[in-house]
Model the fold of this input.
Amino acid sequence: MTAFAELALFLVVLTDFAVLATSRLSACIRAIALQGLLLGALPLLVHGTFSVHLLALAIGTAAIKAGVLPTFLRWAIREASVRREVEPLIGYMTSMIFGATALAVAFGIANVLPLRLVKTDLLIPVALVTVMIGLIVLITRTKAVTQVVGYLMLENGIYLFGLTQSERVPFLVEVGVLLDVFVGVFIMGIVVFHINREFDSISAARLTELRD
Done:
């Protein structure tokens, strides 16, 4: 199970960099959907058990992160008639360099943290790099949909941290976190709709011009 868990974590990092490297919003959504599917499998792979709690967490995570939220984002880009992130604040090559730096920092920090509660040592650095790359996407991209993807990556990193305590954290708390994410993306979808209706653009720079 440890080998499969480490493979899944490696693929999570690849999806992080896939979002950084592409300008196509559909590709970003596919990457975040794949990441959600991997996160759904990780509770079982990391702990190597099949308790009712972990199984319910795995199924719920996969359904929401790999199904509901990506479907909602696809609807958003279809309604907004936008396909690419054409004006990022920093270029894609620079973004990849920042991502590689974040990966090195994540492994450096993980080595000094007193967290050895799971069978694989990759969980903490992958969680850290996912949080940092999510912040990079959230800060450096101008399209609202891409920023939602960055927000989801940020939450996915926090979710990975939570897996170190998944057998101790009450199930209702985990469901609450997923609900918060869903509500956040729902609100951003409404914002995307209003930006597109008023300005024929979904650039987040136009948020300050919205009026009731």
Summary: Helices lie at 2-21, 25-47, 52-80, 92-110, 123-140, 144-162, 171-199.
